[in-house]
Amino acid sequence: MADPCIYLTRPLPEPAARLLREARIELRSWHRHDAPVPRDVLLREVVDAEGVVCVITEKMDAEVIDRMNRGRVVAHVGVGYDNIDVAAATRKGIFVTNTPGVLTETTADMGWALLMAVARRVVEGDKFTRSGHWKTWEFMAFTGQDVHGATLGIVGMGRIGYAIAQRATGFGMAVVYTNRNRLAEERERAVNACHMPLDELLARSDFVVISAALTPETRHLIGQRELALMKRTAVLVNIARGPIVDQRALYRALVDNTIWAAGLDVYDQEPVPADEPLLKLDNVVLPPHLGSASMTTRLKMATTAAENCLAGARGEIPPNAVNPEAQERR
Amino acid sequence: MATPRIYVTRLLPGPGQELLRRAQVEVRSWDREDVPVPRDVLLREVVDADGIVCCLTEKMDAEVFDRMTRCRVVSQIAVGFDNIDVAAATRKGILVTNTPGVLTETTADMGWALLMAAARRVVEGDKFTRSGQWKTWEIMGFTGQDVHGATLGIVGMGRIGQTVARRAMGFDMPVLYSDVRRAPESQERALGARHVPLDDLLREADFVVITAALTPETRHLIAERELGLMKPTAILVNIARGPIVDQRALYRALVDKKIWGAGIDVFEVEPVAADEPLLKLDNVVVPPHLASASVATRLKMVTLAVDSCLAALRGDVPSNTVNREALDRS
Predict the structure, then answer these.
(1) Is B123 on the interface with A (CB under 8 A)?
(2) Which of A151, A323, B105, B270 has the most C-beta neighbours closer than 10 Å?
């Protein structure tokens, strides 16, 4: 039997690359680190690949999946996989894998980095110092919101939400959360978190952090009505997926001072178009989707995806299959 | 007895003015919020004041103290008071008060905000998103350092240092500290902090946070040799006083990648000169001395300073007096 073929939609860093080079496979790859593979190349390359390693920029829809004549696995470098049509993959008996676990802590760190940068106006302050306009000390200049002692509201208490709650321990904060399922009592107690309906959470929290998955139910979960329930001094942080927040409504709420500020790592459309009005506001902090962007974690994610792809391409059930039921269609 | 006269070196925010209006005192004040009082005005105004409320932009040196004919108290609106010649005040029997306690938590928050912003490249990322140059997702794009699980080193384990240490609890971080005095064992245990010599701390820590007071012993405590001991992946955060770090040596260390990044809230000269080379670097975060800059805390500081000044004029010795020995001279 011929060696299975794996196609990478983006070159992988070491040591993930080595793992694949040294495996008994035929390896093909898109060659650019800094540009996604064009659609027509993708459609051509997947045709005879057993496994595909892809990243968030590839729309792995039914058209792509249907081309995979020999496909066994689509290994996504990331935890969210809303770019992949999992139902289409399952129908063809193709496993879809993600990289859960490895990025939980790093993403929770990012939630906190954003929360604190927004609360204490770090980006504005840095820009001011660099501008050369700093002439004196002022009592109320660049004054922000206290983090310690404030109420933290977590929307979506999965792995990442829970890790965010844990980080509040040393800050003397009250933690409230909303989630479809309430946590077991001892898990709640361990992070001092109190379950409540979304509306109540929004009304009570000084910091609202979104860490829910994007589903039809969570799309525009935070719209104009929800933003209006928040305190005028409150900060909204989104490290989950852009469409969970109605971005137009958020822009209005920030301009009208319905809420105090926001930190967004994710957007309706990514990359963000240059004419997005949010980019003009001072009371937002806007990294380019860096939730999992620590060196250590991104390398782990690449390695995990490579391992999943190798297992799947060899005909095994990959460790992080999100659709194990694909097995029944083979 | 004549009504006591208070001179305020800066236009106070509303609540501070209100407090003075209600007291049985005559108040004069510099009338600008955004510009410090000129030296000649200060020298004239202090002459017949019984109490002075000042901030760290005023150099309260021997010359200023020698002009005072009736002064009993100088109330500084800050916790640090290296702008005040305390020995000169003591010689004249003048009490000096500061605002400890009220800004501890807010300052520790800022230490963390800087630590996390530097670790996760929040300022750089925000700038990139706004530039319109974000074209795709990259596996290693803007990757930073993990905070969770890293080793935190605290230089100066006073009130603020302890409060910075406490915030590490939820991040699963080992904590090292260096201080001339070792903390009581119970406190070390509560914070999970281990006392080590400075050189060991610099070698082992992933994040070094400076929270020491500026004294002759701590001036340039962190210079070329010390920076050379740090890990190439380490981040230096200074929320104490600029001169504790040799700023030229820090610049070189950042350019030569001896250390990975820095978050600097304080500078050798403040305001920072527009041609300061640090301001050109991407691997630093440089807010304009905002450690205590939350709305709530700045108002508390103003209120405490005014209260201390009024109390001293009534003949009380405020608990936040930094030179009780002045009483022996009055």
Answers:
(1) yes
(2) B105
Residue-wise pLDDT for A53-75, tens only, equals 999 999 999 999 999 999 999 99
A 10 A CB-CB count for B31 gives 10
Tell if the CB–CB gap between B286 and A293 is shorter than 8 Å. no
The answer to whether the peptide bond before residue B288 is cis (omega within 30 degrees of 0) is no
Place of tokens 């060899």: A314
Is residue A33 annotated as a catalytic residue, yes or no?
Answer: no
- Report the C-alpha gap between B81 and B60 in whole angstroms: 9
Q: Tell me if chain A has a CB within 8 Å of the CB of B274.
A: yes
| Structural contact between residues A166 and A191, judged by C-beta atoms closer than 8 angstroms | yes
Instruction: Identify which of A50, A36, A39 has the alpha carbon closest to the alpha carbon of residue A1.
Output: A50
Taking the C-alpha atoms of residue B257 and residue A57, their distance in angstroms, rounded to an integer, is 32
The side-by-side arrangement of strands in the sheet containing A284-285 is A193-195, A174-178, A151-155, A207-210, A235-238, A261-264, A284-285
Asked whether the beta carbons of B225 and B250 are under 8 A apart, the reply is no
- pLDDT of B190 over the 90 cut: yes
In B, which residues are within 8 Å of A105 by CB distance? 146, 148-149
Active site (annotated) includes residue B148: no
Contact A139 B77 (CB under 8 A): yes
* pLDDT tens string B246-260: 999 999 999 999 999
Inter-chain contact B147–A109, Cβ cutoff 8 Å?
A: yes
Interface contact B10, partner A, CB < 8 A: yes
- Average pLDDT of span B224-231: 98
User: By CA distance, what is A54's nearest residue in B?
Assistant: B139
Neighbouring CB atoms inside 10 A of A32's CB total: 12
Farthest CA pair distance, chain A: 75
Please name every residue paired with B96 in a beta bridge, in sequence order, or none if there are none.
B74
Phi and psi for A277 in degrees, rounded to 5? -65, -30
How many angstroms separate the Cα of A256 from the Cα of each of A244, A246, A275, B89? 21, 15, 20, 49
Euclidean distance between CA atoms A118 and A312, whole angstroms? 42
Q: Bridge partners of A235?
A: A207, A261
| Closest alpha carbon to B14 in A217, A140, A47 | A140
Which residue is it, tokens 């608990």?
B319
- Across A77-95, average pLDDT: 95
**Could you tell me if B311 and B299 are in contact, meaning their C-beta atoms sit under 8 angstroms apart?**
no
Element counts in chain A: helices (H) and strands (E): 12, 12
Instruction: Output the six-digit token pair for A52.
Output: 């595909």
CB < 8 Å to A302, chain B: 139
Catalytic residue (one of B270, B324, B325, B329): B270
Q: Which residues contact A60 (CB under 8 A, 6 or more apart)?
A: A52, A54, A74, A76, A83, A84, A85, A89
CA–CA dist B59, B39 (Å, integer): 8
Nearest-CB residue to B114 (from A122, A295, A302)? A122
Integer distance in angstroms from the first to the last C-alpha of chain A? 18
- Does position A1 have pLDDT exceeding 70, yes or no? no
Give the C-alpha separation, B245 to B259, whole Å: 14
What is the ipTM metric for this complex? 0.93
Beta strand segments in chain A, E? 5-8, 26-29, 51-54, 73-76, 95-97, 151-155, 174-178, 193-195, 207-210, 235-238, 261-264, 284-285
B217 is catalytic: no
Interface of B with A in 85-104 (CB under 8 A): none
